[in-house]
Amino acid sequence: MQTKIYLAGGMNDSNWQKEVIDSFKEVNKKNEKGEFVFYNPREHMLTESREYTIWDLFYVRKCDILFAYMQKENPSGFGLTLEVGYAKALDKPIILVDEKSEDPIFKKHFKIVRESASLVFNNLNDGILYLKNFKNGIVML
User: Fold this and answer.
1) Residue 38: which H helix or E strand, with range?
2) Using one digit for the tens of pLDDT, what is the confidence trace for 12-65?
3) Which of 15, 94, 127, 134 is 20 to 30 Å apart from 70, CA to CA?
4) Which of these, 67, 81, 76, 71, lies nearest to 111 by C-alpha position?
5) What does the alpha-carbon distance between residue 141 and residue 138 come to, in Å, rounded to a whole number?
6) Which of 129, 133, 99 lies closest to 114, judged by CA?
């Protein structure tokens, strides 16, 4: 059984999505079809908000886990907030990496998103490590 993961977060130059996907290459080699499938909004190349919003919400609905990354450099996080809220409404597990709440003003307004998440990590590596421990919907620690 494959675990489908939606990657929610900024689309800046860091290309953090590639870092997450690349960290699963060894895990996926063990299984011909791959144990993890990633829905990466960076790859759809849509530029019209109406079009990419439909794509994003469709794949949030299809995913097993929403992996959300709020980078310090993310200017707003509005898209991530929508995706987390929708995943919460669908009762999806939400793994949130929040680097931006070190700023007290941002933290105050982002608190509702943090509280909607199933788990919150302070850095990308910890979030990836936890995500790697998922296998067929069961956490393997």
Assistant:
1) strand 36-39
2) 778 899 999 999 887 666 666 678 899 999 888 888 999 999 999 999 999 999
3) 134
4) 81
5) 9
6) 99
127 Cβ neighbours under 8 A, 6+ residues apart: 67, 69, 95, 96, 97, 121
The C-alpha atoms of residue 39 and residue 57 are separated, in whole angstroms, by: 11
C-alpha 67/C-alpha 84 separation (Å) is 9
Q: CA 109 to CA 106: how far, in whole Å?
A: 5
d(CA 59, CA 19) in angstroms, rounded, equals 20
User: Contact 115/139 with Cβ under 8 angstroms?
Assistant: no
Find out whether 16 and 74 touch, Cβ atoms under 8 Å. no
